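User: Before I run my own analysis I want an independent prediction to cross-check against. Here's the chain; please return only the structure tokens and, at the end, one sentence I can use as a sanity check.
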Amino acid sequence: MDNQLLPVLLLLLGVSGSWGQGEEPGGPSEVLPEEPTGEEVPKEDGILVLNHRTLSLALQEHSALMVEFYAPWCGHCKELAPEYSKAAALLAAESAVVTLAKVDGPAEPELTKEFEVVGYPTLKFFQNGNRTNPEEYAGPKTAEGIAEWLRRRVGPSATHLEDEEGVQALMAKWDMVAIGFFQEEDMATFLTLAKDALDMTFGFTDQPQLFEKFGLTKDTVVLFKKFDEGRADFPVDKETGLDLGDLSRFLVIHSMHLVTEFNSQTSPKIFAAKILNHLLLFVNQTLDQHRELLTDFREAAPPFRGQVLFVMVDVAADNSHVLNYFGLKAEEAPTLRLINVETTKKYAPTGVIPITAASVAAFCQAVLHGEIKHYLLSQEIPPDWDQGPVKTLVGKNFEQVAFDETKNVFVKFYAPWCSHCKEMAPAWEALAEKYKDHEDIVIAELDATANELEAFSVHGYPTLKFFPAGPDRKVIDYKSTRDLETFSKFLDSGGHLPEEEPKEPADSAPEEQANSTLGPKEEL
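Assistant: Structure tokens:
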């Protein structure tokens, strides 16, 4: 149940996602126009089908109404549809006081404008007929996730606990339970968090005997969990009160296992944790001697909780993309790598070291204290790198070629899988052919997925940069049309265009989408 909590908590920490946070309060509720009585609203798979007339009627009849704005052509909407219907069925079976509906956005432009719908699917939640301030949904795309999000808005988001029996029953039922022990006025903040942290169960109490039972003398949020330390306490500052952001981060950090295995299910949670340093142990899980190393790896982790995330990567599983990213081969396991996900700088131990709790901790400390220099990926320089019209650059020869003071160097940074890179390849080849006899002009390309540079990072593909001759190490970003004529004008004018032409969008590197969130919208 772990794969939903973190993205939601991070929304509360201020991290923006694919979904907005709704409109700002717009004052008192709008007086709804009268609708013809007796008009029947159609249903599809348990979902009300609304339009500009029947939406007002539905708001009058249903005190809690979730509305999906969709487009018939939208792929993400089609993926969501069965889960949305299942959510409606779950809530109906519970007799929950909430109704699910949908609106065909392109067919209802007045409604999409009124509710500021800019992409599909967009889900908005209306309560008590308030048309002016719906809450935009930012939760999971699963039926249970949608249903639980709604349950926590029409019912309690946390269980009121009055005795030890109630506490123990709650703890026995779930892997993780956050219980607020409050005698002061911190309850509202706690319940606000509980509304959106869908993958964690919440309880609260003000009973003195429960404070005593769990060894507490002040207001505290306690995370009880059936793994690792078993319990983590978040004492409330008496002067400042319960801080929502601090509590969210605490739950994010302490809900993570000390060591997390990397796979398609855990990767969203790993990156959502917002712990900047990740220490990776690459092992072959089919080998006993490799599995035994996990004990020492886990032993080293507790002092670094919240600062370094410990991750195990099984080289015998489908993790070749991870190995490639770090420039590793499966045969090199067991080995360690540390990456700062903000700077993307990678670090490796100096030489071959045994994997022990002491060596793992020492490697972490050395990186954190700046005692180990990061490394850069580079392919080997091809023997014929400069034989064709388009020169082949790699990390090892980039500086020498790009910053040659006697050359004007135009470089395409590409990814082998990038469709836009493939589309512009003929124009780039033609450009190189056109200028192949110009001794002071070099047309080159570099696979940015396999080579890293000290000077700058490449985040989108294709990225085009011009390095004019001279000692200044100047770099000019090319942002115009990707065709032979415009490329030629750019080179002939020394790295600028007389008139800036429309910019084409770059093809961004793919990002792993968290399965627990609704994911991207399709723009209007």
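Sanity check: The domain at 260-369 is CATH 3.40.30.10 (Glutaredoxin).
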